[in-house]
Amino acid sequence: xxxxxxxxxxxxxxxxxxxxxxxxxxxxxxxxxxxxxxxxxxxxxxxxxxxxxxxxxxxxxxxxxxxxxxxxxxxxxxxxxxxxxxxxxxxxxxxxxxxxxxxxxxxxxxxxxxxxxxxxxxxxx
Length: 125
Description:
Elements: H1 3-10, H2 14-22, E1 30-31, E2 37-38, H3 41-55, H4 60-72, H5 77-124
Antiparallel strand pairs: 1-2
Helix pairs in contact: 1-3, 4-5
C-alpha cells in the first residue's frame, strides 16, 4: 500500500510517517521502481504501535530507544518490557493527575451552577 493508505490505516499523517522514517523509527521502508514508499500490513502494525506510543506521550527519544531494541533482536525483550512498564507507570501518574483536575473542574462547575440557580431564584422574587 502507498503512504496515504498506510497513514489512514495507522492514524498517522504522511508527513509524520516521513518524519519517523528520517528518524529511523520505521523498521523496513520499501520503495518501488519509481522510488515511492510502499508498506506491508506488518509495517502498518508497527506504525500503529508508534502512534500509540507517541499518543500516550512517550518521548521521541524513548520511542527511538524502543525501536533500536526491536531492531537488535529478541534478546532485548526484557529491556523492551522495562521501557514499556516505566511508560505505563508514567501514564498512571498522569491519569491520576488528570482525574484530580477533572474533579476540581466538576466542583467549580457545580459551584457556578449553584450561583446561577441562586440568581434565578432571586430574580423570580
